[in-house]
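Onboarding guide, step 5: your first structure request.
Type a short instruction followed by the sequence, for example:

Predict the 3D structure of this protein.
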Amino acid sequence: MTPEKLEKERGVVIARHVKRLAEQYPTVRTIRKFLFDSPAEIVPTQEEAARLLGSPATQLLRKQDFTDHGIPWVDHKAKVVRVETCHTEQASWRDYQIRVRWPGGEQVIPARITLTDSHGRDPRAVTLPGSRGETPYAVHNGTWLWSIVRAAEDMAGDLGWSTAESAAFILTGNAPDPSSLDAKLHHPNWGSPVIVLRVQPFVDAKRVLAAYRAAQQRLDGPRVLRQRRRPIQQRSLRLFDFVEEHSGPFSLVESRRRRRSWGQVLAAWNRRYPDWQYAEARALRRDYILARGRLLRGMKDHAKA
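The system replies with structure tokens like these:
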């Protein structure tokens, strides 16, 4: 057996061991009993788990609402039919009316979601399993989704899994991919893409480097990857930072009235950096666009200057 195959099998064996431990984890059985009234009950498929998490009923109602009205965990359809936002000096909240239909029943159920109060509470974004991979959800305090997320976060810290992986295990019994080496691309809403490596400590360093380079190619392609490997010059870094400081990111500044003219930027740049002066604003703007493209390639909402 090759060293690479042996590493993969070792990763699978360890993953199975962790899954067996997780199944006996007291918190898992307690969580499932709380969520489903049975310590052994789970949602049969990943698709059903994603449908459960994506339901407005799960996101806005309490677990007790499901129990009181006899709403099945998965086999229901929910829709927000009315929402009203309210404010006082002490707090802000939204009053929802959610119509829930299920085999043999239909009910419009009210829900009040606190947005802010004296504790500064508001919904937070948490990444959970979705129908098209991991998806960010707005999690409101006190809802059934909030209960699931709290349980998943507690588990994640103990088992070394992500919150999304722990939530998937709680709901479906499916443990994370047993790969001993995993490279994923993460595209934040703002900022450059990030390569996230999860590596078992016994994996050979050459395989880690190969996985990282493969992820770079998935992100950029071979030609762009060669360009990225070339070091960017200090002048380009200073120029990008200077223009953004004086004019704001162009993806965020919509109004020309709020944007300093390129001529003003040129004059300010030449005063601060006399050794890197530009004769024309057009050349400064061109170099800024090139620097921005190299620094933020792949960034969402990559605006044209």
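Each response can be followed by summary notes, for example: The mean pLDDT is 81.
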